[in-house]
Amino acid sequence: MWAPLAALLRDAFTMLLVDRRGRGDSGDAITPQEVATYSVEREIDDLDAVIAAEGGRAAVLGFSSGATLALHAAAAGAAISALVLYEPPFALGGLPAAAEDAPRRLARMIADGHPGDAVATMQREVIGLPAHVVEQARSSPMWHALEEIAQTVVYDATLTAAPNVPTPAMCALDVPTLVVCGAETWPALRASAAELAQRLAGARLVELAGGAGHGIAVEETAALLRDELARGAFA
């Protein structure tokens, strides 16, 4: 996902592209039968380990649930010098939270050997895609790849389960933060981003042209980061 952006910034910054556990080239210490044992703290530990191995402190950019995770990590004391939160799906501005029992139900589907059902349920109930769109996706060539990483839907459902609002520790963070959304994103995500920026003590909202729907505006994001990180503190 981040490779096109990193290619535009590697001349100026050290770029680390992290595959979260269970995705891409990263392994997963949890088996399908153990997936219900997942906790957000596991992924915070992962991020801590990467930052420690690669220099000890980093500006962290996260997209969607990855942005939610980045904010959790910063609030937990990770060595994060700055945050860029691109459309984190907090239940703000009218955006609904995932059902509190969603992680448990998804974990049961995976443990019972039904990864496709878990992915489809995530898309319908948590992401909010219409049923006919999900059914079209199930018949597409990409569906097998989604089933291969099906247990990660439990991780994202855990991150976004009710109440899914910023904690007091998040709101009080003294970390320079940009909350970013695309001009053509889903209206509920834009409203959520605007309210999040108001709640976080050190945050500023930036709306970027480009991108489409809940997607990354690559060139515009690169220009933003080049300018803001060069100045050092998201002033």
Structural commentary:
This protein is of the alpha/beta class and 235 residues long. Helix content is 46%, strand content 11%. The chain has 11 helices and 4 strands. It has helices at residues 3-9, 40-53, 65-75, 102-111, 115-127, 131-138, 143-148, 152-160, 168-171, 187-199, 218-231; strands at residues 58-63, 80-86, 177-182, 203-208. It has a 4-stranded parallel β-sheet with strand order 1-2-3-4, with helices on one face. β3 (177-182), α10 and β4 (203-208) form a beta-alpha-beta unit. α1 (3-9) crosses α11 and α5 (115-127) packs parallel to α8. The longest helix is centred in the first third of the chain and has 14 residues, at 40-53. It is globular.
Report a brief summary of the structure.
The protein has 235 residues and is an alpha/beta fold. The chain has helices at 3-9, 40-53, 65-75, 102-111, 115-127, 131-138, 143-148, 152-160, 168-171, 187-199, 218-231; strands spanning 58-63, 80-86, 177-182, 203-208.
Please report the total strand number as a whole number. Answer: 4
Physical arrangement of strands within the biggest beta sheet: 1-2-3-4
Strand content: 5-15%
Structural class: alpha/beta
Average pLDDT over all residues = 93
* pLDDT < 50 runs, ≥5 residues: none
Reported for the largest beta sheet, the result is: 4 strands, parallel
Radius of gyration: 17 Å
Order of helices and strands: HHEHEHHHHHHEHEH
- Shape call: globular
- Total helix count? 11
Helix content: 40-55%
Determine the N-to-C terminus distance: 27 Å
